[in-house]
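Researcher: Next sequence.
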Amino acid sequence: MRVIPAIDLIDGKTVRLEQGKYDCKLTYDIDPVSAACKWESLGAKLLHIVDLDGAKEGRPVNISVIEKIARAVNIPVEAGGGFRTQENIQQVLDKGVWRVVVGSRAFEDMSFTGDCVKTFGEKVIFSLDVKELRPSVRGWEETVDLDVSVVLDFFINLGVKEIIYTDIKRDGMLSGPNIEALKEILQKTTIKIISAGGVKTIEHIKMLKKLEKDGLSGVIIGRALYEDTLDLKEAVDVGEADNSVS
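Model: Next structure:
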């Protein structure tokens, strides 16, 4: 199970939002590139970058910062937030990003989703951000009238192998992951799931690790790292531990 540090960007600065609310912003005294290098030095094998300005505006905004991060580290970087055209996706791939996270448009235009899979393959990963059992889009400010099961089946039919699943009510709240909801999602699909939202302590990582056998392939962590409630190196060690040894 990969433990993936998140770096969320507003105006080029490292921030976190509570439940995706832009008026509940926490700004941290570490620049994004320094944060990326720090997480790499502590054992991260992948970084998750979110352009929150881009998510709100519907187009990438912080591309120069994302490029600086991608060029500064020796581990893969995935970036999301406002990537709603193939041109936007290719632009950031050309700047050293390993793969692009597509959210909103994947649920508003499913032909676009299929085209992305054909064009980019595993260079694109889709983000299923859920509020009240419905996908949320446009910076989590709107919901789409689609059942999660329908979305999962659609992804399976396209041959998608892995998605990011965010529980918006838990995101940025340090209230613990929604284990029961994750179990339900994992039972509904053969797609590998990367979980985001709620992690605060090493105990939460251990709880999530138990779901690896059910298809949980990773966990994205943000606020817990910036507020020192979780040690990244310890979390990575737990995530990478051999499940066959107990």
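Model: The chain has a mean pLDDT of 89. DSSP finds eleven helices and twelve strands in the chain.
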